[in-house]
Design goal:
Number of domains: 3
Distance between the termini: 122 Å
Structural class: alpha+beta
Helix content: 25-40%
Number of helices: 14
Radius of gyration: 27 Å
CATH superfamily of the largest domain: DD-peptidase/beta-lactamase superfamily
CATH topology of the largest domain: Beta-lactamase
Strand order of the largest sheet: 11-12-13-14-15-16-17-18
Strand content: 15-25%
CATH class of the largest domain: Alpha Beta
Number of strands: 18
Shape: globular
Length: 514
Amino acid sequence: MNNRKVDPDGGGLVRRSAAFASVLCFLIAGCVDEGAAREERIARVEAGLIPGTGVVIKGRPIPAAGLSERMSAYRVPAVSIALIDENRISWARGYGVTDHESARAVTPETLFQAASISKPVAAAAALKLVEEGRLDLDENVNTYLESWKLPENDLTAQKPVTLRRLLSHTAGLTVHGFRGYAAHEDVPTLNQVLDGEAPANSDPIRVDTLPGSMWRYSGGGYTVMQKLLIDRTGLSFPRLLQESVLSPSGMSRSSYVQPLPEESAGDAAVAHRMNGKPIKGRWHTYPEMAAAGLWTTPTDLCRFALEVARAFQGGSGPLLASESAREMLTEVDDGYGLGFGVRSEGEKFSFSHSGGNEGFRCLVVMWPRRGQGAAVMTNGDFGGNLYIEIMRALAREYDWPDFRVREKIPADLSVEQREAVTGVYDLKPGGKLKIRSESGRLFADPVYVIPDGRREVELFSESPVVFFAVETDLDIHFERGEEGMVTGFSMEQNRRRRRGVRIGDSSGDRSPAE
């Protein structure tokens, strides 16, 4: 007797297997196509950095350079990038080496100091305590501080320092930022930092402006917040942040432990100066953990940004309630919320934060309603210029609303109008600037062009008295005297303002009027 079972479909099993195989092949092919498309986009980003200010002359080709070329130009050995698209981390890449001596390749797992991006991550921990009813955003912080009190004065008698004001940089507190402690230096306790006592290398953190009256960036304020969270929970700051923010956000490569444990040192990028030389002792230690102490990766920063964005959009998650996320991303003053900078409205709304420790520069940005964003981390003092160029390349490839190239159309000046601004100008404070005309073009010499040093750059006109450069962030507004002659200018470069007084013609001779 034959006991073999017969398929009642008469071969249906074979047909179903064949159909399943066809679907599987289709899915695999789709994944391969998606992966190939992603690699093509990454390659375009790597080859499409736009040097300079991001301003180009309309009608001229947009200059582009490769990532490795720009890393070399800025003397930045290591770069790490993570990209958010369609509300997920689409890709992450590491470039270069952690330092030239060891030549360890950078990977997406390489650790960098997040510097001031430590602040929004720490702010999330404070907001969780508010959710739990253990802190109030608008209560006097001295109500909660136990092992140290913020000294009161006439200003705090008028308005108190609150957690909301600490998180939004409106508490009137001193100390903009911290330079950390080199390997050979003693590291102060948190109380010594707060009071500016040796071996602390920063001033005492005190109220010197009426709380709530103005926005002024204060790492000191976040250091007070660090003390507040420790006193309120009884936990060390690294443990508190691990339990309340890092683990819930999936930030598995992140830690606030300072100094960095030696067992993690082999995974970390070494800090580098502007000249490309590594910092003695590899990096600095930051006891000001809330303000500057986070070690992390771009991937982990993107995970945090996605959690904040999800809550802001009304979704549920392990990090913050929607109400807390919306509070965090609501502007308090001067484009700053409770931990993040915020800007624009609607689909273009974004939150972001940059960071700059000794030898590290980084940036994270997220457009929550578009499901897009990125984090870039570098280990060089010129890394800030580099990450902006990277962001421009990403913006161009992924059609972001910000970091776009700006096209300008120079004004058509007459020979007389160009010649009117040429001459030698005495800069205040210190130095001289020569502006000369050649073949219908204007040049300024010398101008500081990062990282090339001081050299000549071409000036383009927006009007007979307003000029700009594309190689460096430079704007010049010329001023005229009573007889209509150009007598000087005001100049802004890299957010630094200077004035110039005309002392001679472009040959360097002093003007007869002088």
